[in-house]
Write a structure and sequence with these properties.
Helix content is 40%, strand content 15%. By secondary structure, it is an alpha/beta fold.
């Protein structure tokens, strides 16, 4: 079995979609002949969102170095922006320096055949580039997100200060990479245009083990749920306007409806809904543990995806969890891009562009819920299973096999630093 060094700042038990991606790679790569050796941040309940059950049956021996990052102030607020501007390649700086200190021991002990570095932050790319140049080990630069992916929706300090410095830096860091991967076609187009090199797509997905005991109950309310953050390009106003229109025409009763948002900023959500009558049935909840989120998704009437011009070409991890939950998905408005294609391919939901289209679809589902207490699901499971985390680990293993093909299995002189 070959060995791959995974450089992942976000890794379980951190509660994030980024940690889910790296954790499931570590979980499933052994199925394809690759032993993962992971270097990550030390995550505790005190230093970030924390969920020890994020990945079921994660091999504990895979995590060989959980590195503390020191002062929390270094990663929040104005200080973080200053640090990112001054040291973009090694940010978070203290964590990067600590990793570089333990690298010789880890590389000499485990003798990795390849490296997978997933970012953000860019420190993982910096470390992989360092090892590769020193040792000649092939590596893959994985971009879960891309600076500038939200266009004009990107925060001003990023557009004016950080992005112009980081884009040339990225090109230098990934010059030594044997391959570049990202999670969607839209982000691949950005990276290809920016760095003038081929980019492979390994999408986000869902872990089948999370959905082994799937049950569906009738719903006492017509519940529409959204999981994730809100910002300008993720604007639920089209949904609110459609519900107001249906209520105004006495086609639905607001007391039957529940609009629930999990993980959004309450003040930001209030700014979207304050002018709509349906605000009385809108409720904002904090981020919840992964298992609880899955249970709520599976017992929703409709799962909401928000897209728009700023989010074009972006497939978040939540979309794939929605697919696995096997509840109807509403994308409002549609992105005219990869989300729309995904919903057509899987038949797992609909994408609506206008208030009238959203209202028409909601009324159809509402009447079905009134009649039978739930909404029938018509997704194509064969198409959905292509997006399991196990399948994606297989894609990564295939790429690793290509990069290491022909290399000597037992080169006694390699990997000594």
């Amino acid at each position: 079995m070959k060995t791959v060094l995974l450089l992942a700042y976000q890794y379980p038990p951190a509660l994030s979609s980024a940690a889910k991606r790296s954790g499931c790679m570590a979980k499933y790569l052994p199925h394809y002949g690759w032993r993962p050796v992971v270097i990550s941040r030390l995550w505790t309940p005190e230093n970030g969102r924390y969920d020890p059950n994020l990945v079921r049956d994660l091999p504990p021996e895979a995590l060989v170095a959980a590195i503390p990052d020191g002062n929390r102030r270094a990663y929040s607020g104005a200080f973080a922006r200053i640090r990112m501007f001054v040291h973009p390649s090694t940010n978070p700086h203290r964590w990067t320096q600590s990793v570089l200190k333990v690298l010789p021991r880890i590389v000499n002990q485990y003798k990795p055949d390849a490296i997978w570095a997933t970012c953000l932050p860019h420190a993982t790319l910096y470390i992989a580039d360092y090892i590769s140049r020193k040792m000649g080990i092939p590596w893959i630069a994985d971009f879960r997100d891309v600076l500038g992916q939200f266009g004009s929706d990107e925060r001003l300090h990023r557009r004016l200060l950080i992005n112009p410095r980081v884009v040339p830096l990225e090109s230098r860091l990934i010059r030594s990479a044997s391959a570049v991967t990202t999670v969607s076609e839209g982000l691949a187009r950005i990276l290809q245009g920016r760095h003038q090199r081929e980019v492979d797509i390994i999408p986000n997905g869902f872990d089948p083990d999370d959905y082994a005991q799937t049950t569906w109950d009738k719903h006492d309310r017509f519940s529409i749920r959204y999981f994730g953050s809100l910002y300008t390009s993720r604007d639920p106003s089209t949904l609110f306007a459609a519900i107001d229109s249906l209520e105004r025409n006495r086609l639905i009763k607001l007391e039957d409806i529940r609009l629930q948002f999990y993980g959004s900023n309450p003040a930001y959500l209030a700014s979207f809904v304050r002018d709509y009558c349906c605000r009385q049935v809108v409720k904002c909840h904090p981020v919840i543990p992964h298992r609880e989120a899955i249970h709520l998704q599976q017992n929703s009437s409709v799962l909401l995806v928000l897209s728009g011009a700023g989010g074009k070409g972006i497939l978040t991890g939540k979309v794939f969890e929605y697919l696995a939950s096997q509840r109807p998905i509403l994308c409002a408005p549609g992105d005219g891009d990869c989300i729309d294609r995904l919903l057509r391919e899987t038949n797992a939901g609909v994408s609506c562009s206008t208030i009238n289209e959203v209202a028409t679809q909601l009324l159809k589902w509402y009447r079905e819920w009134k009649a039978i207490g739930t909404i029938r699901y018509e997704g194509r499971l064969d198409a959905i299973m292509k997006y399991s985390r196990e399948e994606q680990a297989g894609q990564l293993a295939d790429l690793l096999n290509i990069l290491t093909r022909g290399s000597a299995e037992n080169d006694s002189g390699k990997n000594n630093i």
